[in-house]
Give the backbone structure.
Amino acid sequence: MAARLGVVTGGAGDIGQAIARRLLRDHDAVLLADRDLGAAEAATRDLGPGCSAVCVDVTDPASCADLAAAAAEAGGVATLVNNAGAAAAVSLRSADAASWQADRALNLDAAYYVFSALADQLAARRGSVVNIVSVNGMGVFGHPAYSAAKAGMIHLTRLIAVEYGSKGIRANAVAPGTVRTRAWEARAAANPAVFDQAAEHYALGRIVTPEDVAEAVGFLASPLAGAITGVVLPVDCGLTAGIPALARTFSQSDDY
Ligand SMILES: NC(=O)c1ccc[n+]([C@@H]2O[C@H](COP(=O)([O-])OP(=O)(O)OC[C@H]3O[C@@H](n4cnc5c(N)ncnc54)[C@H](O)[C@@H]3O)[C@@H](O)[C@H]2O)c1
């Protein structure tokens, strides 16, 4: 059987590394595609054999073509995880045209560029795509351009599922709630209680770990999910189901 290769964009980041570690359990090799090559190479040393790094700017279609060439050289991709992402402007008032376009470029356009560059390889292996979106693409939790882009990425997931299903490609999305990663560094520095305060709103009373996200990705990329395509799976400790304090207020019941 041909070797199974996973590609993880933003693979040097905290969630990206957890996804790579999970994919290495049932893939032969994982390629970390990140614009920070030094961090990606350091991650490959931690992750061990089977893992390699490539410098890619996912917002640049030419760089995505280089990624496709590297993946082809490594045997062709079976699982693509579009994980690179970040949020800039925190509110509509603080956004401007440049920050709006930058958030959209990284959190929506890039997933289209990477998928398009790798579509033929994925089709050749009846592979699968997992897009890392966010609860921000499902409800309003701040960071508007990022959120609008993630909502677009959810729809891109459906577009891929419907157009490429006949080629055997499945496409699904994972929507994490709050995950303590380096993306939160500035907010955690400004408010050291930010994660405890966030956890109070989650039904499970805790926030999400990178491993929680990675396990969902591993499932969706596996044959166990062979009939699942076009869905968005929240990995959010219940946030999108409802908020206990609001249920308590609305019902005036201490049962919540
Ligand atoms: N941390 C959270 O609370 C949270 C919640 C929901 C969704 N997410 C999503 O999870 C994904 C991973 O986030 P994280 O928290 O691990 O962030 P992170 O900052 O730890 O990792 C992001 C990685 O993406 C890379 N990257 C950024 N721009 C790039 C580009 N143009 N080309 C290639 N690589 C690029 C960075 O170098 C970094 O290694 C993102 O899509 C994010 O939106 C995170």
About this structure: DSSP finds nine helices and seven strands in the chain. The chain has one domain: 5-182+209-240.
